[in-house]
Amino acid sequence: MFENHLQIRPSPKLMESMRALGYTSDVAVADIVDNSLDAGASSIEIRGDVSDEPAWLWVSDNGQGMTLTQMVEALKLAAVSSVDARGENDLGRFGLGLKTASFSQCRRLTVISRRDGVTHGIRFDLDELRESDDWSVRRLEESDLGEVPGFQEFSKQEFGTLVCWQKLDRLMESRSSGAAGMGEVIAELRAHLGLTFHRLLAPEDHIRGGLSMVLNGRAVQPIDPFLRQNRAVEMTSPEAIKIGNDTIKVQAFTLPDSSLITGPDAERKDLRDGMYAAQGFYFYRNRRLISHGGWANLGGRRDSTKHSRILVDLPNSTDDQWQLDVMKNKVVPPASVRRQLARFYEVGSRKSGRIISYRGRRVSSPDVEYAWIPVTERGGFRYEPNIEHPVLDDALTDLSQTQRDKMVRALRHLGLLIPYGDIRRRMSIDDEVPAREHQDALVQHVLDVVATLELDLLSPETVGAVLQHIEPFAGRRDLEQIIARAAQAHR
C-alpha cells in the first residue's frame, strides 16, 4: 500500500443497498440463466415452490460446473471486470449478476456445483452477513446439501450447478398470498424467458447446440416477436453495419394484419392490443434479447409504425459503446450508428403504414363521398358499398322499393365477398401497386356521372366542384384535364 494512502473497505451492508438496483423477478431469473448458458448448459430446469407458503425457487443446469475456488470467485462482487475481454458467446458483463440478481429477490442464496465428480456447496445469507459484519459465506457440509431445495433432483447429475433462493421477501412482495402468488411469478417467468431466449430455444438454433428449458415441469416455448413462421410477414435481408472493428446486423420485419395471425399466436398480447407498445427495435446480444419496444429516441411510436419490428444483433465486444447496464435489459445506441438505425425506422414506417391503410389512397375525409365505407363490428372491420354515393343513389332512385331493397342486399352481399386475403398478399408481400384507371376510362366515367347527375359540361367549374367530392375523382391533380377531355368528347 502506498504511503499516505488510507484503505477504505466496503461494509458488508453494501449488499443491502445493492438489492435496490431495479431488478424485476423475471429479469433476475434470466440473469441466472445467463450464467448457466455461459457454463455451456444445454438443459436448464427452474422450479418455484407452489405450496401455501412459498419458500424457495431454484435454477439447475447441466453446465460444466465449478470447483470450490471457482465458486468463491463467482460469489465475489465484480470478480470479472467489465473491460476484460470475454469469449465471443459470453453473456456476462460486470461480474455482478449472480449476486445482485439473487439478492434483489431473496435474502438467502445457496450455490451447489458439481465438477470432476466432486460436489461443493456455499450459502450466502444476508441476515448472517449483517450479524457478523464480515465478508464471509458458509461452506456447506455434505450432510447439509440434502436440505437444500432442488438438491434431490440435482444429485442425479454428473456435473452442473444449482442456484437456490430462499427467504423470498422481494420475490413474493406485492403478490397474491400463497400458491397463487408463486403462480403469478411462474406465469410471468414463462412469458419473459420464452421471449428473452427465443432464438436459443428455437429448433433451428445451432450456435449453442440447442437449449432445453423447463419451468415447473413444462417446457418453455420460444416466443418469436417477428413471427417468422407466418408466411404473411415481410422481412428484409440482414444488413451489416460496421462500428470500428465490430459489426452489428440489422433486419427489418413488418408483421401482417391481425386477421392473418391465427392459432396460438392470435392470443398473444403483443400481437393484439399490445402491438402498439411492442413496435420498435429488438436489441440482441449474442442472440439473447436485451431490450425491446420503442424506437431508441429515433422516432416516436405511431399507429402507422405498429407493425414494424427491427432486429439488431450486437456482439458483446460493443457493450461499452452501447452502454449496456448491469441488469442487461437496456442499451443506448452510440452516435456512430444512430443515422443508420434511423433509416430502418423510416423504412419500417413506410412498410407498416401499408398495413394500416390502403396504399395510394388518401385518409378518409367527411368531405368526400367514397364508393366503399368501412364498418367496424365484433372487434373487426369490413367494407360495404356506399348506397349514398351519387352514382349508386341515382341508379337506385328509379327502382321500386322492393327492387331497391333487393339491389341493396345484393350490393352488401358483394361487400362480404371482397377478397381481403388476396389483396393483402398482393400489396404487402408481392409489393404490387393497385392499378389506376387509365385517363380514357376516367373520361368515360366523367361522362357517365355527368349524365347521371344531369350536370352541364359547359360549366367545368361546376362539374369540378361536384366531382372533387366523389370517389374516384377526389384528390386527383389532373381532374381539370379529365373534365376538359370529357367536354371535348361530349361535343
UniProtKB/TrEMBL annotation:
Q: What InterPro entries does UniProt report for this protein, alphabetically?
A: HATPase_C_sf
Pfam families found in the cross-reference section: HATPase_c_3
Q: From which domain of life does this come?
A: Bacteria
**Gene3D superfamilies attached here?**
Histidine kinase-like ATPase, C-terminal domain
The protein's name: ATP-binding protein
